[in-house]
């Protein structure tokens, strides 16, 4: 039995979780939870034992100095709680950590134990994947659930995915079997500029979370960062005609598709969000308290300080992606490599196929979401195709 001391009785609590690694392209999801924790000054009340779930050769601890005293920070998953004020106060339980290396079922059961003790009414798990989406268009965010009733009542997609999965999919299914309503939100990150951070994808996830739980989230400097990020990518793409042509082809494909952004329901959600922000006391305010960063200049760095987006490269005849997912070696698993690009005289072909994990196996690293994500699957609930074996089951007792 989990006993919580010092945690008050919570009001209509919702658990919001994100995990670094395979399900976190561009660090978009983990940054979203970190933003909530920072803006609402979350207080950590529990941390899972790192010894139980992490391989320290994959996710290494860090050493730092505190007043001349050496200390160690272990990779783990921490839980914090924030109370959102206003006319209808409610609490959020924020779960932020790294995808575990082992014992996934025990990991999920421990998180569900906290959810049960705290009276959590809904679990929202955020993730991000790589996709064929242009950086100049709104970031597609899909909401999926395994519960047919929840799909109808909350305007979500009922997941039909079959295949290898990550901790986001495992935790969602664990919640469903435990009778806890659970939703996954997936943001699609442009595969040709996958380096973290991606504030535009983070902003899209938070906007979707706002709509889902009917709660206004202070954005701070996130809107400025998203615009600066897009402007920086625009400038870099303009310097290379091949990249510019490739982005244009993605824009044309996106604009001719039936987009949820153009639907009446999406327009209604945008209008509701506008009213919620206006009624909340104006931009940057929650419950009458102003948040920082609204209205400042959008550009805070120069294009020379940005990482140049890799050129799309021709894919070999085997159909495998060319280096889109080499791991960083730290276990976070977001892709930073080059991406597929068609020949100059042909229309760009959508990258597809399974990633080549030989390089990762050679170095002892785990496969990366960038190397396994199926681009162009923004509406899918699972990002790509990892190795045949489930990482969470291989070390299970």
Throw out a few tags for this protein.
397 residues, Proteasome_assmbl_chaperone_2, Proteasome assembly chaperone (PAC2) family protein, two-stranded antiparallel sheet, Rossmann fold, alpha/beta, globular, proteasome, 8-stranded mixed beta sheet
Task: Describe the protein.
This protein is an alpha/beta fold. It has a domain at 14-260: PAC-like subunit (Rossmann fold, 3-Layer(aba) Sandwich), CATH 3.40.50.10900. The protein is built from 11 helices and 14 strands. The chain has helices at 28-39, 50-53, 104-118, 148-153, 167-177, 199-213, 222-238, 241-256, 264-279, 358-363, 369-372; strands at 14-20, 43-47, 62-66, 69-73, 78-84, 90-98, 122-131, 141-145, 157-158, 182-190, 285-286, 289-290, 312-313, 339-340. The strands form 4 sheets. It has an 8-stranded mixed sheet, sandwiched between helices. Strands 3-4 form a two-stranded antiparallel sheet. Strands 11-12 form a two-stranded antiparallel ribbon. β5 (78-84) and β6 (90-98) form a beta hairpin. It is globular and about 60 Å long. Mean pLDDT is 74; it is low at 281-381 and 383-397. Residues 343-368 have a biased composition (Basic and acidic residues). Residues 299-397 are annotated as: Disordered. InterPro entries: Proteasome_assmbl_chaperone_2, PSMG2_sf.
């Amino acid at each position: 039995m989990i006993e919580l001391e010092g945690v008050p009785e919570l009001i209509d609590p919702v658990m919001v979780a994100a995990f670094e690694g395979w399900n976190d392209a561009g660090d978009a999801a983990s940054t979203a939870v970190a933003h909530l924790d920072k803006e609402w000054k979350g207080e950590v009340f529990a941390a899972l034992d790192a010894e139980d779930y992490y391989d320290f050769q994959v996710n290494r601890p860090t050493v730092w100095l505190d007043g001349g005293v050496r200390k160690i920070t272990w990779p783990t998953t921490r839980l914090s709680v924030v109370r959102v004020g206003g006319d209808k106060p409610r609490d959020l339980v924020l779960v932020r950590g790294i995808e575990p290396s082992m014992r996934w079922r025990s990991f999920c059961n421990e998180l569900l134990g906290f959810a049960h003790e705290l009276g959590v009414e809904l679990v929202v798990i955020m993730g991000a994947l790589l996709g064929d989406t242009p950086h100049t268009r709104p970031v597609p965010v899909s909401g999926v659930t395994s519960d047919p009733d929840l799909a109808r009542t909350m305007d979500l997609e009922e997941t039909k995915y079959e295949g290898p999965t990550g901790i986001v999919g495992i935790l969602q299914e664990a919640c469903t079997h435990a009778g806890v309503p659970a939703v996954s939100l997936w943001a699609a990150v442009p595969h040709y500029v996958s380096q973290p951070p991606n504030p535009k994808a983070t902003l899209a996830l938070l906007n979707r979370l706002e709509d889902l739980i009917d709660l206004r989230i202070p954005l701070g400097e996130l809107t400025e960062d998203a615009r600066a990020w897009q402007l920086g990518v625009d400038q870099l793409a303009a310097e290379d005609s091949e990249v510019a042509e490739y982005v244009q082809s993605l824009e044309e494909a996106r604009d001719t598709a039936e987009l949820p952004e153009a639907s009446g329901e999406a327009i209604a959600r945008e209008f509701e969000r506008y009213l919620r922000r206006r009624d909340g006391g104006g931009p940057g305010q929650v419950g009458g308290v102003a948040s920082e960063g609204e209205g400042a200049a959008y550009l805070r760095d120069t294009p020379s300080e940005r990482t140049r987006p890799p050129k799309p490269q021709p894919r070999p005849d085997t159909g495998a992606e060319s280096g889109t997912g080499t791991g960083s070696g730290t276990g976070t698993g977001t892709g930073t490599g080059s991406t597929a690009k068609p020949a100059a005289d042909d229309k760009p072909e959508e990258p597809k196929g399974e990633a080549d994990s030989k390089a990762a196996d050679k170095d002892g690293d785990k496969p990366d979401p960038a190397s396994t994500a199926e681009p162009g699957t923004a509406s899918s609930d699972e990002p790509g195709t990892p190795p045949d074996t489930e990482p969470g089951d291989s070390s299970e007792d």
